[in-house]
Amino acid sequence: MRDIDIRHAGPADLIVLEQVFGPFQAGVYRRRLELPGRVLIASVDRRPAAAMFVSTGMPDEPEIVEHLGRVPMLHRLMVVSHRRRTGLATHLIAAAEAGLREQGYREVAVGVDLENTVALRLYDRAGYQEWSHGRLKTFREHLDADGNVRITPDECLVFHKDL
Ligand SMILES: CC(C)(COP(=O)(O)OP(=O)(O)OC[C@H]1O[C@@H](n2cnc3c(N)ncnc32)[C@H](O)[C@@H]1OP(=O)(O)O)[C@@H](O)C(=O)NCCC(=O)NCCS
Fold this sequence. Notes:
Layout: E1 4-8, H1 14-32, E2 37-44, E3 47-55, H2 62-68, E4 73-79, H3 88-102, E5 107-113, H4 117-125, E6 129-130, E7 136-143, E8 149-162
């Protein structure tokens, strides 16, 4: 049986995050480590295989604050390709929710790209509901053709769940 362990990442984990997810995604987590919240790492048989950032800071988009208040948000969920479709993301989401519940939060939200049908299905299966305020204008971090990190406007759908 697989041994799945989920823990909080710290700066010492950045090297392994880079080995597993590459420099861009590791850079994303490195910047998130300086923000309020937790980077979670899921390991399978002691090998890191998935990560996400659970933000407890003020949401970046004023529409989120207007409709959901200072709700914690799930960001940058990533499972290594050879471990996908084994329930790992579902475990990580459940662990994030349990941690938030322990901290006293009663709701959690996530923004999902309109075209990301896999993630849309994942959050639906995890009991999240789309909010009734339509698409949200947001920003996306990505690499441009020269390998530089770019932040460009984007749109997403917002899902939330009572904890
Ligand atoms: C989206 C992602 C995190 C899912 O991780 P995962 O560990 O494979 O997900 P799970 O195994 O927990 O799947 C849970 C449910 O999600 C849905 N799902 C997951 N992968 C799917 C796929 N390839 N096709 C269709 N549905 C899928 C299914 O409903 C699945 O339940 P089921 O297997 O019982 O049908 C992973 O594909 C990934 O890292 N993608 C790239 C990054 C990304 O898009 N992140 C989401 C940002 S919001």
